[in-house]
Amino acid sequence: MREEYDFSQGKRGAVLPSPGKTRITIMLDDDILEYFRAEAEKEGRGYQTMVNAALRDVMRQANGKGDDELLTVAKLRQVLREEIHAA
């Protein structure tokens, strides 16, 4: 180990940048953070990933793209029932 290191050319931040992502500091209410952490623990996912997904859903709904892009089992069943009834 050296006696002294030269950090004059050093930069702060992540060693490997994440393309398409920006590191920010955000203040969240404790109950919201607790909810996402608990849900993330149950699902085995990261809570930050879940917060990002929730914000993306809000963004899609605000742009009128909320329900049209996702096909759920309930929607599929409803369409099948309507098609069978029509036939």
Question: How would you portray this structure in words?
Answer:
The chain has 87 residues and is mostly helical. Helices cover 51% and strands 0% of the residues. The protein has 3 helices and no strands. The protein is elongated and about 80 Å long.
List the helices and strands and how they pair.
Layout: H1 30-43, H2 47-62, H3 73-86
Helix pairs in contact: 1-2
Keywords:
51% helix; elongated; 3 helices; mainly alpha; 87 residues
Short recap of the structure:
The chain is mostly helical.
Overall pLDDT, averaged?
Answer: 87
Helix content: 40-55%
Largest sheet: none
Radius of gyration: 22 Å
Number of helices: 3
Strand/helix succession: HHH
Q: Give the CA-CA distance, first to last residue.
A: 79 Å
In percent terms, what proportion of residues is strand? Answer: under 5%
How many extended strands?
A: 0
Structural class: mainly alpha
Show unreliable segments: none
Approximate shape: elongated
